[in-house]
Structures are given as structure tokens and as C-alpha cells.
Amino acid sequence: MIVQSPQESVVKLDRLYVKELSFWRTEAPIDSASLTVEFQRNYRFNETETQCTVELTCTVKDEDDSLLHTDVVICGLFSCEEEDRETRLTLLKKNTLAILFPYLRSQICLITSQPDLSPITLPTMNINAVFETTAEGRIEGE
User: What is the pTM of this model?
Assistant: First the structure.
């Protein structure tokens, strides 16, 4: 069933897929380990800058990268019909990360739902603010 809305978004998610997924851990207990979360983003625009492929990468690992390491790269192909170029680029750079982040959170939780490991659930957050406050999108954990 398709629900119609009078307030359609000018940014459309045309395609979504997980590009890369990796996970490894040791046999040592991990539940009390302090984890670090790092994000990276990459934008590729078409010639008219009306379509953009966005990659959002998340790395979760312990402090010395010896107990646990997981990487997820999620990609979205977006289009935007906004006529003003500056507004269109801002929408494609900001809104797309906010759209992709819940899918990334889900993949991190799914991949870490393993025997003898508490699933890692990233908190809800303003992903754009993460990149604004730290150049490399890094969050220190507990």
C-alpha cells in the first residue's frame, strides 16, 4: 500500500544497499570493553548535481583494536529536484546522512548480535552534528 503525502520531500532515496560488512572478535570477554565509534562519509555527484551517491561508513572497535572490530559501509543513491544549486547541494549533503544513519545503526546491531556478545546499539544522534564537532566523526565510548 502506498501512502500519499501532500508534503513530499525534494530529496528522494532511489536505492539503498550495504556495500561492505565485516566483523571479527576474540574469545576474550568484550562486554566491559570501552568502544570507539568512527564515521566517515563520501559524496559522488552526477554532472548536473541532481543525483548523489552517498557512502556512510561506521567502524566500531575497542581502544587498542584487539578484542572487536566491525566495519559497515552503507550506500544510498539520492536524487533532488530543488532548482537552487546551493540549496540542492546542502539538502543532498545533510539530509542524506540523516536518512542513511538509521539503516547503519540497524546493521551494526544485527552484525553484533552474536553468541556471547551483547549487541552494540548505537544511540540515536544527529549524525551531521558528529561531523561538525569532530573532523573525522569520532565518538569515544564507555
Answer: 0.85
